[in-house]
Amino acid sequence: MSLLSLDRPGRARAAEPDSGPPPRARTRSLLTALVAVAVALLPVRAWVAEPVHVPTGSMAPTIRPGEHVLVWKLGVDGADVHRGDVVAFERGGRLWVKRVVALPGDRIGLADGRLVVNRHVVDEPYADPDRIDSVYFGPVTVPEGRLFVMGDDRRDSRDSRTFGAVPEDAVRGRVVAALWPLHEAGRAVR
C-alpha cells in the first residue's frame, strides 16, 4: 500500500502506516516465545547446569551468605569428584553446597582448626585457621561409597561432622562460578 492516498480528487493525504498485528496477537506471540524458552531451558537445568542459592555463611569466605552459584551437572557424579571440589548434593529434599575434604577410605580429623587427612595437615588457603582455631573433630574413616564434606567456615557449618559422610550418588554437580550478586558474576569458585 502506498503511504499517500487520495481522499478527494487532486488532494493527497498521508495513509496510516500498517501497525502490525493487533495487541492480542502480539501478547499471544510473546507468551508462546516465553513458553518455548522455558521448555528449552528445563532440560538444561535438569541435566547440564543449575543456579543454586546459598543462604548461610558456612562456605565463607569462598561463597558469601545470599550468593547464587552455578552448579555444573553434566558428566559429574560423586565417584569422579576430588578432594577440594565444592559440590552440591541432595540431603533432606534440598541442595546443600559444601567442600569435599575426604574420599572413601580416607582418615580425617580436625586438630585446632587444621584439616588432617591420612595423618597429613592439608593446606587450605580458602579456610582461615585463625577463625576456626580450637575446633577439634575425629579422626574418623570415610566409608566406601561416601564423601566427607565440610563448610569452609568450620566453626559455623552443619556438615559431615553433624550428619555423617554423604553418599556419592547424592552429588548433583560441581559448583563452578558465582552468579549473583551481579558484581560477583563469573567469579570462579575453587
Description of the structure:
With 190 residues, the protein is α+β, with helices and mostly antiparallel strands. It has a single domain, classed as Ribbon (Umud Fragment, subunit A). The protein has 2 helices and 13 strands, in the order ββαβββββββββαββ. The strands form 3 sheets. Strands 3-4-13-5-6-11-12 form a 7-stranded antiparallel sheet. A 4-stranded antiparallel sheet has the order 9-8-7-10, with no helix packed on it. The chain has a two-stranded antiparallel ribbon with strand order 1-2. The radius of gyration is 27 Å and the shape is elongated.
Question: Which features does this protein show?
Answer:
alpha+beta, Umud Fragment, subunit A, 4-stranded antiparallel sheet, 2 helices, 16% helix, 35% strand
SSE blueprint and pairings:
Layout: E1 4-8, E2 11-14, H1 23-48, E3 49-53, E4 68-72, E5 86-91, E6 94-102, E7 107-111, E8 114-117, E9 120-121, E10 137-141, E11 146-150, H2 160-163, E12 166-167, E13 171-180
Antiparallel strand pairs: 1-2, 3-4, 4-13, 5-6, 5-13, 6-11, 7-8, 7-10, 8-9, 11-12
Structure described in brief:
This protein is α+β, with helices and mostly antiparallel strands and 190 residues long.
CATH architecture: Ribbon
Query: Which secondary-structure class do the elements indicate?
Result: alpha+beta
Number of helices: 2
The percent range for helix content is 10-25%
Q: Determine Rg (CA atoms, Å).
A: 27 Å
Strand proportion: 35-45%
Domains (count):
1
- By CATH reckoning, the class would read Mainly Beta
